[in-house]
Amino acid sequence: MTLRSVVTLCLFLCTFASQAQSINERWLGTWQSGNQKIVITPTSFDNCRWSNSKPKAAHKNCLAYYDGLISKQDLLQYAKSDMDNVNRWLAEKNISASEYQGFKKDIQNSASVLTQVSPDKFKQVLLDYGDMANPDGGTIYFLDKENIYAVSVQEGAIAPMFSIKKFSR
Q1: Rounded CA separation 53/66 (Å)
Q2: Fewer CB within 10 A of the end CB, N or C, for the chain?
Q3: What is d(CA 84, CA 117) in angstroms, rounded to the nearest whole number?
């Protein structure tokens, strides 16, 4: 192997290593929220294969990987937008008063969970279902202190779009 080949190989591996990220050990274990469990290992995240990077091509299997950041401020904005939508739907008579109360309670439950989240930015994990993905939304996960939070954002229905669940060991 020539010196040029060795240098090229080292540059390739360093570049790949800087883009690829194994899951942080703090995520590993079994997490629970009510009856719902998430099991995370070095190679899987809730039954999805851990991919050290975002896939570059279409795929059919569920992959999990780090994908950007989310902040508490972003989450608060989702909750505010939900309440604004629900208030507008009531005013436009798209929902009944009892539906309004139910939606308002769901939003307040999410807001209550949000009070426990640190005022930081968090690296988010995305579960990418590839060809099987729901086009109207999905769930991202982030780790804050000793808890994992699952954030769902759904679009397209007259219902709250945002929800957040706290998972503990």
Answers
A1: 7
A2: N
A3: 22
List, for residues 19-61, the tens digit of each pLDDT value.
Answer: 568 999 999 999 999 999 999 999 999 989 998 888 777 777 8
Record the pTM: 0.81
Query: Tens digits of per-residue pLDDT, 81-131?
Result: 999 999 999 999 999 999 999 999 999 999 999 999 999 999 999 988 876
Residue 136: enclosing H or E segment and its boundaries? none
**b/e map 58-90, b = 16+ CB within 10 Å:** eeeebbbbbeeebebeebeebbeebbebbeebb
CA pair distance 137, 151, nearest whole angstrom = 11
The answer to whether 68 and 80 are in contact (CB under 8 A) is no
